[in-house]
Amino acid sequence: MDVNAAVAAAAAIAGVLTGVIAMLAFRFSEREQKRPTRSSLHTDAVLPPGVDTVLSVLRSSAVVLDEADAVVKASSAAYALGLVRGGKLAVEPMLQMARDTRRDGEIRQVELDLPRRGTGRGEALAVSARVAPLGSRLVLLLVEDLTEARRIEAVRRDFVANVSHELKTPVGALSLLSEAVMDASDEPEAVQRFAGRMQIEATRLTSLVQELIDLSRVQNDDPLEDAEPVRVAELVAEAIDRCRHQAGAKQITMAAGGTADLRVWGNRGQLAAALGNLVENAVNYSPARTRVGIAARSVNAAGGDHIEIAVTDQGIGISDKDKERIFERFYRVDPARSRATGGTGLGLAIVKHVAASHGGEVTVWSAEGQGSTFTLRLPEAGAARGAHQPARETRAGGAGLDEEAGRSTPQSPESNAYETLPAPEVLP
To answer: What is the pTM of this model?
Structure first.
């Protein structure tokens, strides 16, 4: 009897101990689950209410860091700029700013130039970084990309400086020549010579002002609002008539071919100005007793049929270095020759903007001493466009306002216009 009682007592004690141990283990497990872990600190749950929503609609790149400098939240733009890699902020100056702000709670802002990652280009990425405390443990970093704004500002400064210089030259010449005419009032031959020079400078000034107006117009106007089917043959004939006098003076032969029954869709005035600029450049930069060819053809493309109008000369050609910049405003391959011919350096910039605003492009193939071929590629006037339906789907969005202008696509020698003239019409 005593033995049985002892066994029962031992079993009861063991049961009580097992229950106590189970209860303690359950409580310990609950406590461990509620305790924040290192991984849980990196989730959105640590962000104050509403912050996640606000960060998702900001235009700036946003990064939230915890007290260990780990990234709690980062926008897609921050990853695109290369600010965050491997869960860490990859820009050391910004990381130091975040640490300083976490230490003293002060808001900091700085502009930085960051190298572009994953590209072969050498230009830096300009950003503005602003760091502020977010709660007691987090730091918010906002980064604004200033690269495009800086580029536009640089283009504006260069444009103003170039315009001022180009206007100053003929105006200064007219002032000096007028004084010379006054001093030589008793010498008819000198007056006649100075008056002739004044006419040249006045013509150059008028051309510069007109091309500035044309460039402003093609940049601001939508050519497709007044678009219509335009015969390529008419554009070519107008361009040849525009340059007939200069070509005749240098005994340059102009030949056209392949333009029959071809039509492009766009603003007739702008297209005529663009093609006229290409032909005028070809004549001005060609030696005497050479030939300028104008050829057109229809090509099939994924985005719709296009018309290519190629203007080929036997001039001085363009170096590879200059080909990268020839479509920039006021840039001249040969400044001395441009001065002699009255060039302003705006002709090819106008061509580029006209082509882009019509949903096309202009490209160049050239070799020094062998001449050049400029190809104007424009949407063909199909049945839908002939019925005056909008052709906006063919526009290259924003292509005409990218002032990285001046980047040309080399053409192969096979695109030479002379080789596409099956039955040229020679125009003396």
So the answer is: 0.53
